[in-house]
């Protein structure tokens, strides 16, 4: 009888645990995905495309899944003083917090106006691109108060602020594509009031200036380690998604637009970060391009992707000259990433439903 009771108790606990997981998954708003790390060192997920990348791979470090259960993870920003990572779960309209010490992920902010990109300024204040509904850039003060830094340009509402960086002179630069107002998934559909999709700078005096106006849907952006160049992703590039570099002049203006990276007709560039050596660590995945002709799968004719997502999902690393030198293979498409940890050598990768991490022998430039 006692044995039967023990079996029943174990079965109850098993069922309860399953129910709890289901509740947690439902609360997160998306299915949680299991992940099996590679058992062997070096991790075969870290692929060396050029010998120059070998020095950035740590032999006994492997890809870890540190959080899962989101609909579209984006906008990672690491707060060194607190030892935590913030990131956006855009369709669920919230900002999440991953604590390195406890390994726990909690909600940092609900009703976040479909926040996308995040970063911290040199004073430790959170800067956020609210890319739908409010369509503005905000700063969360150290006392928790939210200050609006920009919500319009020349009397017209911004499109959908996307990604954001801070220069050492405390100027704030952000991109303003259309994604947050193009549909109902990552916000609410709305009409654009701007004539172009721009890269803006907020001066220390609060003045908003359109610095780049000839990129179609600019997305991720970052400065070179010496801040002499600004790199910007053109999401709707012609013919492919690309990264352009611009020289930063002494007066703060930009010039000398140069294409550094072309993602070809299968790759999808999104967010990226730069290490101290000037390498570009880029979120990577399929851009959804279809084959010209359908394939008969035995049941029906289907237009397949030009390349399999499982072959593209991850992080592509380019040297400053635009040559691909390394690839980190992930089970989900990586939208964005940042360097974190006390030494800025832990790469956090927001990837569709999950967040992955990898220690590397590279350090974030900022």
Report on the structure:
This protein is mainly beta. The chain has a single domain (39-359), classed as TolB, C-terminal domain (Neuraminidase). 8% of the residues lie in helices and 39% in strands. The strands form 8 sheets. The protein has a 5-stranded antiparallel beta sheet with strand order 1-26-25-22-21. The protein has a 4-stranded antiparallel beta sheet with strand order 2-29-28-27, with no helix packed on it. A hairpin with a 5-residue loop joins strand 7 (115-120) and strand 8.
* Averaged pLDDT: 91
Q: Any idea what the shape is?
A: globular
Distance between the termini: 64 Å
Strand order of the largest sheet: 1-26-25-22-21
CATH architecture: 6 Propeller
Total strand count, please?
29
**Sheet with the most strands, sense and barrel status:** 5 strands, antiparallel
**Helix-residue proportion:** under 10%
In terms of structural class, how would the helical and strand content be classed? mainly beta
How many helical stretches?
2
As residue ranges, the low-confidence spans are 1-28
* CATH topology value: Neuraminidase
């Amino acid at each position: 009888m006692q044995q039967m009771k023990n079996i029943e108790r174990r079965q109850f606990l098993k069922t309860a645990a399953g129910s709890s997981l289901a509740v947690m998954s439902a609360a997160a708003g998306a299915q949680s995905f299991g992940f099996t790390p590679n058992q062997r060192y070096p991790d075969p997920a870290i692929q060396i495309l050029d010998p120059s990348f070998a020095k950035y791979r740590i032999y006994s470090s492997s890809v870890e899944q540190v959080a899962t259960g989101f609909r579209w993870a984006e906008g990672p920003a690491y707060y060194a003083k607190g030892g935590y990572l913030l990131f956006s779960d855009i369709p669920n309209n919230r900002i999440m917090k991953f604590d390195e010490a406890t390994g726990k992920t909690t909600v940092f902010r609900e009703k976040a106006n479909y926040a996308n990109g995040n970063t911290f300024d040199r004073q430790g204040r959170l800067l956020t691109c609210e890319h739908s509904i409010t369509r503005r850039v905000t700063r969360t003060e150290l006392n928790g108060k939210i200050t609006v830094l920009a919500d319009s340009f020349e009397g017209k509402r911004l499109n959908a602020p996307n990604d954001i960086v801070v220069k050492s002179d405390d100027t704030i630069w952000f991109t303003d594509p259309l994604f947050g107002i193009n549909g109902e998934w990552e916000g609410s559909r709305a009409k654009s009031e701007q004539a172009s999709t721009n890269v803006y700078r907020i001066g220390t005096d609060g003045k908003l200036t359109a610095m780049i106006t000839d990129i179609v849907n600019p997305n991720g952006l970052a400065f070179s380690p010496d801040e002499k160049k600004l790199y910007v992703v053109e999401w709707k590039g012609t013919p492919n998604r690309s990264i352009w570099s611009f020289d930063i002049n002494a007066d703060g203006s930009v010039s000398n637009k140069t294409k550094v990276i072309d993602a070809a007709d299968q790759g999808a560039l999104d967010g990226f970060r730069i290490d101290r050596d000037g390498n570009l660590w880029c979120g990577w995945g399929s851009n959804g391009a279809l084959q010209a002709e359908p394939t008969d799968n035995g049941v029906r004719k289907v237009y397949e992707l030009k390349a399999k997502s499982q072959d593209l999902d991850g992080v592509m690393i380019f040297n400053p000259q635009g040559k691909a030198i390394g690839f980190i293979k992930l089970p989900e498409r990586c939208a964005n990433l940042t360097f974190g940890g006390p030494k800025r050598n832990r790469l956090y990768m927001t990837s569709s439903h999950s967040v992955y991490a990898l220690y590397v022998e590279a350090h974030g430039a900022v």
